[in-house]
Design goal:
homotrimer; five-stranded antiparallel β-sheet; about 25% helix
Amino acid sequence: MQQTNHTLHTDTNGPGLYEISSRVVNWCQKQAIQNGLLTLFIRHTSASLTIQENADPDVCHDLQDFFNQIAPQQGSYRHSAEGPDDMPAHIKTALTQTQLTIPLTHGQLALGTWQGIYVFEHRQHAQRRQVVMHLIGEDF
Amino acid sequence: MQQTNHTLHTDTNGPGLYEISSRVVNWCQKQAIQNGLLTLFIRHTSASLTIQENADPDVCHDLQDFFNQIAPQQGSYRHSAEGPDDMPAHIKTALTQTQLTIPLTHGQLALGTWQGIYVFEHRQHAQRRQVVMHLIGEDF
Amino acid sequence: MQQTNHTLHTDTNGPGLYEISSRVVNWCQKQAIQNGLLTLFIRHTSASLTIQENADPDVCHDLQDFFNQIAPQQGSYRHSAEGPDDMPAHIKTALTQTQLTIPLTHGQLALGTWQGIYVFEHRQHAQRRQVVMHLIGEDF
């Protein structure tokens, strides 16, 4: 059994879903491990991870709308010193994922046909986000 | 350290919570691994996983009501080509889990007394859902 | 590759976010494993886990307000035999996490600067909550 890890940097430019599937898959394919477990961990509390449909881009826009309605910037929040988008960003992060773990079999992640891996940015301004990738498993 | 995996198929027949606890436990008990980590990964974006109380069936019905109210079929969505239940299904998936990881100790999953593992189906029509189970650990 | 586990008990005294970061970090530092994967699993369905900002305590209060508004005690629930706070507690648990997995590198968890690990208590009365910690990895 072996393990390896790497930090992926994603530059975001405003709220939205940024697909990282191909970068994650490419990194996995360069590792010796063929069977195991991939964990993604985002090191932030105002951006999150989600697995969603990557066929119709409207899905991502509808998701954004939903989260904006449920946690609006115009809400009444105590925490406002970091801007009106910060507390809604924390709420949206709490409602989605900070971490995702995906089995790897014969070099293939277990992702279904329509599943894409996304960084879900919740802040208004440009950010550089860090996603730690950790892979544990075997080369056979 | 060893690992093994298997895909569990669950036939669903409309929205609701389908308990898979006993099938998951049974599969684990047939493996040589006694101590380790079980990961469940659902390969879909319109059905999800959740751990919930499995004592009172009303809890599952109330959960369904809650998610139907928060993401109603009558909502205004861009993504409608796959039917009025599809975009709400993606939202409900984003709000719950695509993956669950549970420690295994002396052959027992760490599930609490009242915790059941459920496939949460969000689509109206019958579906066959795939849940990948991955177990890593040792036989002692 | 090695593994080890331990159950952390947290006494809660009403709804709110109880930070367990330092207890988790301290336990990890006492293990021989320097590189690997830490999994936290809470054995309940009316309390959950979340990773949130631990700088401004207002964030935790705003989070509580949000979840109280979205799943109010005054809601119309079938499941009421365990008190008016129980079904909202199950909903809040479904919307957050029962499990968190965090990579460990050179003895350090991958937590970002502002990330804290919290038990999110959703019940009114005092509880003793169990969080299973499982660490798999190597000592180099």
